Amino acid sequence: MEATIRELLDLIVRWVHVIAGIMWIGNSLLFNWLDRNLTPKEGIEGEIWLLHSGGFYQVEKKQLAPWQMPDRLHWFKWQNMTTWVSGIFLLIIVYYMGGAAYMVDPNVAEISTGTAIAIGVSVLIMSWFIYDLLWRSPIGHNTPLAFAISFALLIAVSYGLSQVLNGRAAYIHVGAMLGTLMTGNVWLHIMPSQRELVAATEAGKRPDPALAYRAKQRSIHNNYMTFPVIFIMISNHFPSTYGNQLNWVILAVVMLAGAAIRHFMNIRFWYAGWLRAAAGTAMVGLAVLFVLMARPNSPSSATLANAPVSFADVQEIIGLRCLSCHSATPSDDQFTVPPAGVTFDTPDQIRSMAGRIKARAVDSKTMPLGNKTGMTEEERALLGRWIEQGADISR
Ligand code: HEC
Predict the structure, then answer these.
(1) Ligand 1 centroid vs 323 CA: distance in angstroms?
(2) Best exposed site among 60, 186, 219, 336 by fewest CB in 10 Å?
(3) Which of 314, 290, 284 is nearest to 384 (CA)?
(4) Is 209 exposed, middle or buried (0-12, 13-18, 19+ CB in 10 A)?
(5) Measured distance CA(321)–CA(323) in Å, rounded
(6) Percentage with pLDDT > 70 across the chain
(7) Whole-angstrom Cα distance, residue 107 to residue 166?
(8) C-beta of residue 254 within 8 angstroms of C-beta of residue 242
(9) 6: CA distance to ligand 1 center in Å?
(10) pLDDT per residue over 292-309, tens digit each?
(11) Is the separation of the CB atoms in 80 and 186 below 8 Å?
(12) Rg (Cα) of the chain, in Å, rounded?
């Protein structure tokens, strides 16, 4: 009953989160694109013609005189707020209410769920103040330096979290942190500047350039954060990223490559070689990722001889460590239906899932979830050898 309610909540909130996120990021990408494609026109900043769903759209970008102020002005701010609020709810529903299995990994650090949550929440709050202070300070006017410091801090947070939380929770907190910074930028810098622009226009005055400068700067930051954030949001489908021993290096590579590709897309209007540069960055990023992801976590199988593994041993381990969740009738306190529909009740079910068992329990060690059932390194090695020997269930 409780598990069903949680799953239903998860489903609804996630649905809202994805829709709001598409609207917010989609608008952001569209306006960036518009800004760069405007054709200069006499008397205004620029103009563009668009074709969409059966009609022509003429969009002009301009400053207004007081009497030109329209009655209705669309702001595009609630998509951001909806994305952030639903994201925080998801963090609570999936991770904080999911407990130890989602937040902690005894192989990473033996901390309580409460401590793990406290660390996660403080990172989200502290990061805003540190980031905001850095970019408000005199250092903030030296863009390359402030960028280098920000990126170093980002990697430090990723590393730090990967040393205390389970890999998946570490990743999602970096993502939630970036999302929080983006939301802070929208509501505490970009919106006030736009409000000021409207007020100045109504009063027939020139808007404050300092406010406009900071709003523009934060809007550029948000632009660079979009691709990395989206990667982090989909990363929990890819255990060889967050489950890797070097998960924080993988995250750093993806964030750097994602931001760099966004950069080449930003400058494509004056830099003809942008596509080659973006493709080159993507290739290098992919090569590094491939090497990192293919690298097995601590090669525990080396400690055991190559003697054939009997299926009886395998079945015993799976019964002990996996069946509490992955069974038609789970006994786990959280899961009342087999997670991801995966069951290991019969030898055939085990054999047919051999590849995924290796990926999750041997290579990335992301199963059992949060190592809730206390699987040992020897057991992982044994499963790995049985699979390498052909996953034979008749022996
Ligand atoms: C505490 C409950 C729990 C235990 C114990 C557990 N799992 Fe899982 N398993 C999950 C959850 C939750 C998911 C779905 C989320 C995900 O994929 O991370 C899942 C998904 C899976 C999947 C399907 C997704 C994929 O990547 O193919 C496989 C395979 C898997 N587990 C293997 C195992 C093996 C092998 C064990 C035992 C060594 C095990 N699990 C023990 C909770 C558990």
Answers:
(1) 10
(2) 60
(3) 314
(4) exposed
(5) 6
(6) 97
(7) 9
(8) no
(9) 18
(10) 988 766 655 444 556 788
(11) yes
(12) 25
Distance CA 386, CA 394 (A): 12
354-373: pLDDT as tens digits: 999 999 999 888 999 989 99
Q: How far is the CA of 115 from the centre of ligand 1 (A)?
A: 24
Report the separation in Å between the CA atom of 343 and the middle of ligand 1, taken as the mean of its atom positions: 9
Q: Which atom of ligand 1 is nearest to the CA of 317?
A: 38
Report CA dihedral (89, 164, 382, 343) to the nearest 10 degrees: -10
Could you tell which of 323, 337, 367, 386 is best to mutate to test the pocket of ligand 1, judged by most ligand atoms within 8 Å of the CB?
367
Q: Report the C-alpha gap between 271 and 265 in whole angstroms.
A: 9
* Residue 279 alpha carbon to ligand 1 centre in Å: 35
Could you tell which of 10, 236, 360, 382 is best to mutate to test the pocket of ligand 1, judged by most ligand atoms within 8 Å of the CB? 360
Whether residue 253 contacts residue 231, with contact meaning beta carbons closer than 8 Å, is answered with no
